[in-house]
Write a structure and sequence with these properties.
This protein is mainly alpha-helical. The N and C termini lie far apart (45 Å).
């Protein structure tokens, strides 16, 4: 073999580790997210986990999940989540999680924040995105069709702005970045996956970790990584939540069938750290807590933000382990815990029961 020829054995091992090889053996597929989160936790100085608080939270969370009979089926019970189990729904979920980031507003008046009117109701935050997609489809705009995203004659920037129009003067945050994500994803799906999200999913061979790695390897807008202590840290929030939403929507069947779904961690955003702090699981250094409470922005990729996200992932993992320790037969993973914490935090926000604001970071990652 000449110096210019690739080492096929090495390439094969690399493909297996990334989960992008074509064979059926995906046991080696690993997103590395949990390992990187543990590293952040081990080396954090501004975010700490309270051991007793985490154990108490685990008992509380499991008790409430039992009381509410919280299960995977709760996902489909949300009014706006798609109900059909077909390829069109796969496209819907792909677009939904392609754009599932940064909905918080600097406006203290919630009635003036970005919002979407749909079927006589006003939706804000994440739900405004889902409502806007439904609204566009009902207006015969094929916004969930990947080939449409690269048709800049039919799918103009003005049309995309129209799709995500607001009931208030405030626009959806990061609209240009959202347009860029749509265009990029359309081009890559067309070039690498015959323009089909279904083809992308099939290439993962029912491996959750492989699908995350395919997304983050092929699509820069899904590759959610940061640097901490000169080490690359993988978070992959939107890639992981895309897998989780497929799993939830299709109830673990068909396009949502993944033999290693439990490799997916919680989704490092700004709501779950807020909830974990409220539960007494996370503690912040005085400068970081002051920054959050004063509603001052935290830069994407800075040490504080990486610690918030990494420690939250590791905290939910410890909560999951504690639930399983106390209840060996419990069928629970990080996805269900994340879904439950998110729904609970949103309910607390709506009821005015926040004990600390969420941290404020502008980025396409969450």
């Amino acid at each position: 073999m000449s110096d210019s020829e690739p080492d096929e054995e090495l390439l094969s091992l690399l493909r297996q580790s990334l989960g992008i090889n074509g064979d059926q053996n995906h046991r080696q597929a690993d997103t590395k997210v949990l390992k990187d989160a543990e590293y952040v936790y081990d080396n954090s100085i501004d975010v700490a986990l309270d051991t007793q608080g985490t154990k108490a939270a685990a008992a509380t969370i499991w008790s409430l999940m039992q009381e509410k009979q919280y299960s995977l089926k709760m996902w489909s019970e949300h009014t706006l989540h798609p109900k059909d189990k077909d390829a069109e729904t796969v496209n819907f979920i792909f677009l939904m999680d392609l754009l599932n980031f940064c909905f918080w507003s600097e406006n203290p008046d919630p009635t003036q924040c970005f919002s979407v009117e749909y079927h006589g109701q006003i939706f804000t935050g994440y739900w405004s995105l889902i409502a806007a997609i439904h609204r566009a489809l009902e207006e015969s705009i094929p916004i969930t069709t990947p080939s449409f995203w690269i048709d800049e004659t039919g799918c103009t920037n003005d049309l995309i702005n129209h799709v995500f129009r607001s009931e208030t003067p405030e626009l959806i945050p990061l609209i240009q970045q959202r347009i860029d994500c749509i265009r990029e994803a359309g081009r890559i799906l067309d070039a690498d996956f015959s323009g089909s999200v279904v083809t992308l999913i099939h290439k993962a061979n029912h491996s959750a970790a492989s699908l995350v790695n395919l997304l983050t390897t092929h699509f820069p807008c899904f590759n959610d990584i940061a640097t901490f202590d000169s080490k690359h840290i993988r978070f992959q929030k939107r890639a992981q939540i895309l897998v989780a939403d497929l799993w939830a929507c299709f109830d673990g069947q068909s396009f949502g069938s993944f033999h290693d779904i439990n490799t997916i961690t919680m989704f490092a955003d700004y709501r779950i750290p807020q909830m974990l702090h409220s539960l007494g699981c996370l503690r912040y250094s005085p400068p970081l807590e002051a920054q959050i409470r004063s509603l001052r922005e935290i830069e994407s990729g800075c040490s504080w933000e990486v610690q918030l996200r990494g420690c939250s992932i590791w905290c939910v993992e410890l909560i999951r382990r504690e639930i399983k320790r106390q209840n060996p037969k419990a069928e629970v993973n990080a996805i269900l815990i994340d879904f439950f914490l998110y729904d609970t935090m949103k309910q607390r926000v709506n009821e005015g029961l926040e004990t600390i604001p969420h941290h404020r970071t502008r980025s396409i990652w969450y």
